[in-house]
Structures are given as structure tokens and as C-alpha cells.
Amino acid sequence: MKVRTTVKHEDIENVKRITESTGFFYDHEVEVAISLVIDTLKNPEEYNFVLIEDDNGKTIAFSNFGEIPCTKKRFDIYWIVVDNDQRGKGLGKILIAETEKRIKELGGEIAYLETSSTEKYHPTRKFYEGLNYDKEVVMKDFYADGDDKVIYSKRLK
Questions:
Q1: Is there a contact between 112 and 152 (Cβ–Cβ < 8 Å)?
Q2: Exposed/middle/buried for 82, CB within 10 Å: 0-12, 13-18, 19+?
Q3: pTM value?
Q4: 3-state SS, residue 16
Q5: Tens of pLDDT along 102-128?
Q6: What is the pLDDT of residues 54-74, one digit of tens each?
Q7: All residues at 6 or more sequence positions from 92 whose CB lies less than 8 Å from its CB, including other chains
Q8: Rounded to whole angstroms, how far apart are CA atoms 40 and 42?
Q9: Cβ-based neighbours of 133, under 8 Å, separated by 6 or more
């Protein structure tokens, strides 16, 4: 396994494949993930990525994060995605740990994540809580009626 922080042109397809494999994201959300790779290829300082490759060099997981504008040392973790075929192998924990490490290297003190309140995302919420992220806010009916936005935070030490 190899961790890298620089995106390559092939990551346009890698991110698409990984994101689609989960069954969690709508087509328009997959397009957003792809656009972040494209934007970062054009301007490497635009967004930050952590990507995990298997022993054969195949990209199997990624995260994307950035400093929150108009804040001091606060970062949003926008995407944390593990290829569906690789789930349950501890890659999510490795991905979060590497992302937190990179945020700290960039001077970040607090990381924020968000997810849906629907039952489909129950394992995601439990995953964040198991990694000591605190539920900060629930924004009712944010994504749609009955689909709240749940925001978590963690102070990075």
C-alpha cells in the first residue's frame, strides 16, 4: 500500500470509479468529485488530496480537503471514499489518519466533516464517531425533506 498527496491525470477516472463503486453518491455528486481532481490538476494549490494505492499501484481510496475560507486553521474534509471492493479492510481509518496528519502539517487545528442523517449513512456516522469526531450540528431537512445534514468536528492535536 502507498499513500500519495499529488493527483495525476489518471485520478480523473480513479475518483470516478471509486466514487461510483460505493453506491452512495448521485451522478451529480460524482461529477463534483471529478471536477475537484480536474481543478487540482490545473492548479495544484486549489484542493488537497490523499490517495491510497494498493500494492499493484491501483488507486483504491481518496480524501479531499481544504482550509475553510475566512477561518483560522479550520479545515473541511469534503470527501472520504473507499472503493466498495476494499471496504472493511481498515482503509478508511488509514485515510482519515493520513488526512488529519496532512491537515496538521498545513497548520490546521480543527477538522469538520458532514454527512446525511438517513439510515443509509448510519455506518458513516458511526465511523466518524468511532474516530472521536463530535456531532456538532444537525441541520434539519438540509438535503431534502427528512434528510438532515450532520456536521462533525475534531480538534487535531
A1: yes
A2: buried
A3: 0.93
A4: helix
A5: 999 999 999 999 999 999 999 999 999
A6: 999 999 999 999 999 999 999
A7: 61, 80, 82, 127
A8: 5
A9: 111, 113, 152, 153, 154
